[in-house]
Amino acid sequence: MKMKMTKTGARLSAICLAVASLMSVSHATFAADDSATINVTATVKDNTCTPGWDTNGTTVDLGNLNGAHLTAKGAEVGKKSFTLALKECGKGAKTVKVTAAGTADSSDADGFAVDSGDGAATGVDVYLYATGSDGKEVALKPDGSNSVEESIAQGDSTLNFAASVKQSSDTAITTGSINSNVTLNMDYE
Questions:
Q1: Which band of pLDDT confidence, cut at 50, 70 and 90, is reported for residue 153?
Q2: Is residue 39 part of a domain?
Q3: pLDDT (mean) for 54-67
Q4: Could you list the residue range(s) of the whole structural domain that residue 157 is in?
Q5: Is residue 92 part of a domain?
Q6: For the chain, how many structural domains are there in total?
Q7: Given a cut of 60, is residue 25 above it in pLDDT?
Q8: 18 vs 32, 97, 165, CA distance in Å?
Q9: Is 148 helix (H, G, I), strand (E, B) or coil?
């Protein structure tokens, strides 16, 4: 059997050969992308504690709040105390400095913004308070510009907090659900 190669067939064969070559190079390239380098670093210290709360966070449920009490900017409802436990504090742990971080309310930079969306309350924000070793309650700010220091003991310690809802401006509120995310940062000394 004789095969006759035409000019078109020769070009087609050359193209097929080139595509096959690229596919083998391409496969090798993709295989090389399946690796990762992970750099793990740490410092061992004796002045830290282990958080005694779930790594998914803590929810403070203020329950059903009476919006009739929110009639002017700064009006506050639903203040509720809660604690966070610090476990296994090292012998070098003497104090913890707590700051907060989150999104500030657009009408009240000292309050934490409430998530927006369908069914969300408007005209309100969330305040988070911490009580330091001096017994003074401080409203933690979303920008982290203020802090509370709490003495801690070797072993286990408890930090005292409170949360509330405030009217964030002089405009009337709308009722609805309230959800606000706050990150607490803890620096041990």
A1: confident
A2: no
A3: 90
A4: 50-188
A5: yes
A6: 1
A7: no
A8: 21, 65, 68
A9: strand
The model's pLDDT over 65-117, given as tens digits with 9 standing for 90+, comes to: 999 999 999 999 999 999 999 999 998 899 999 999 999 999 999 999 999 99
CA dist., res. 24 & res. 68, Å (int): 71
Question: Is residue 116 in some structural domain?
Answer: yes
Whole-number average pLDDT of the chain: 85
β 137-140/76-89 pair status: unpaired
Nearest to 129 by CA among 109, 159, 151: 159
Alpha-carbon distance of 31 to 23, in angstroms, equals: 12
Q: Please measure the distance between the N-terminal and C-terminal CA atoms of the chain and give it in whole angstroms.
A: 89
* C-alpha span between 104 and 62 (Å, rounded): 20
Higher pLDDT, 24 or 34: 34
Q: Is this model's pTM higher than 0.90 or not?
A: no
β-sheet bridge partners, residue 137? 131
Read off the CATH number of the domain in which 126 is found. Answer: 2.60.40.1090
Q: For residue 122, which amino acid is it?
A: T
Residue 90 lies in a domain: yes
